[in-house]
Amino acid sequence: MKLLDLKDRLKLYVILDRRLGRGVPLCDQARLAIQGGATAIQLRDKRMQGRDFYRAALAIKEICKEKGVLFIVNDRLDVALTAGADGVHLGQEDLPLEAAEKIAPEGFIIGISVRTPDQAIEAERKGADYLGVGDVFGTSSKPDAKTIGIEGLKEVCVNTKLPCVAIGGIGVHNVKQALQAGAVGVAVISAVISQKDIAGAARTLRSLVS
Amino acid sequence: MKLLDLKDRLKLYVILDRRLGRGVPLCDQARLAIQGGATAIQLRDKRMQGRDFYRAALAIKEICKEKGVLFIVNDRLDVALTAGADGVHLGQEDLPLEAAEKIAPEGFIIGISVRTPDQAIEAERKGADYLGVGDVFGTSSKPDAKTIGIEGLKEVCVNTKLPCVAIGGIGVHNVKQALQAGAVGVAVISAVISQKDIAGAARTLRSLVS
Ligand code: NI
Question: Hey, what's the signal peptide range on this chain (chains A, B) (predicted)?
């Protein structure tokens, strides 16, 4: 995938979540978010068993494919590859990038979570395709994470050529700040999938990043 | 890998375990088990983060490779592939066999946990290389599992051409029974790695399966 193309597809990056989704099934979370204008969907669930996670990935991949939305699987590279996802997202405690590169086919996207310029530089050097940068504003979904603030986001963005997606406490009130700091898009969980009107929440955010 | 060769390498299949290993590091568990005659080593840890699991797999792979011992990673196919393990072992709740087959290279071994002849027949049809059959005698490491007994083991073994490894509560007192039921080898955890003399415990078991 060309860089320009990837940048466009990272504008509104919605992460699905079973617990935060107020009982809305993962597939419906995906459908509604896409209906509202999500450009990328990430499936993340560290507690799901491999088989269930694979099946969820297969189903969500079909939904994304139909709508031309980027589909990324968190952490489990094997699930991402076997379910036909467009890419995998790896945190600093997940499989290292250099390991993932060994079995990722040409064109498969690898995103890396970073907090600092050093981590960004390392990820770029090792071949990452995009960065998830944060926790920017603090998020209730990761209560232990320390925030890097808008300054921390800016510092990462100026130190890498990779497209950066801001994550952590992003909402309608701070999307513009994140983009001004250099992010090409924003990643959200609760700001979309915890809302009563998932599609509406996505639509509002999308209008701010387009 | 040829069937005969694989059969020989499944004789004494030792599963490493951080919690059951009485504080002995995983690498030392592997070294001592191999010293005592383990023919296969499996790394299993559902709670380790991907990066730690990958690093442990890399280290244990080197130990196994040096001694010509089969090295299998449990559950995480991505870790197995990127760490250069000989194969992966998948339970009924893990990534399905047909998914794993999509990205497993030629010669990569896939083992499947089965309890019943139906599961064995399905795994054989879908291309499994060996079966882990059990829980045969009941094991404290999986308190919720129901045992299939020696009759259950026999029933699986007569219904498949795949090499079967008996697992669950195997010890010096019942190894012969397991082999007579049709197993080509035995898989053990606590009977080896929870013992004060890991190498000695492996040696005794090995003498019974050779
Ligand atoms: Ni094979």
Answer: none
